[in-house]
Amino acid sequence: MVSNTVNTGTVTRADLAEALYTEIGLSRSDSADLVESVIGHVSDALLKGENVKLAGFGTFLLREKSERIGRNPKTGVEVAITPRRVLVFKPSQVLRERVDSALSPKK
């Protein structure tokens, strides 16, 4: 279980490395190296245009967005939005159920 010592609502690389150190017993430097390695592998696969699926967690997908007309919300002026590739995350059913049960009010 990863817990924030500062409780900023954000889990950092340092938090993940600390969890590996605490729960698995890897050295602090090995834990940090492992976190960096995993993030590097995920990033490299995405840069190659591959989707990344982590069973029980979710899938990082690359989606192509076509050109479209948008509107500046402040001025109302129409603007052409160029085509681009976006990264999206689709949580697994297991993760969704865990989050839902953790956030649902306890009776």
TrEMBL record:
GO terms for cellular component: cytosol. Gene3D superfamilies: IHF-like DNA-binding proteins (4.10.520.10). Keywords: DNA recombination, DNA-binding, Transcription, Transcription regulation, Translation regulation. Pfam families: Bac_DNA_binding. GO terms for biological process: DNA recombination; positive regulation of metabolic process; regulation of DNA-templated transcription; regulation of translation. Belongs to the bacterial histone-like protein family. GO terms for molecular function: DNA binding; structural constituent of chromatin. This is Integration host factor subunit alpha. SMART domains: BHL. HAMAP family: IHF_alpha. PANTHER family: DNA-BINDING PROTEIN HU, INTEGRATION HOST FACTOR SUBUNIT ALPHA. InterPro entries: Hist_DNA-bd, Histone-like_DNA-bd_CS, IHF-like_DNA-bd_dom_sf, IHF_alpha. This protein is one of the two subunits of integration host factor, a specific DNA-binding protein that functions in genetic recombination as well as in transcriptional and translational control. Heterodimer of an alpha and a beta chain.
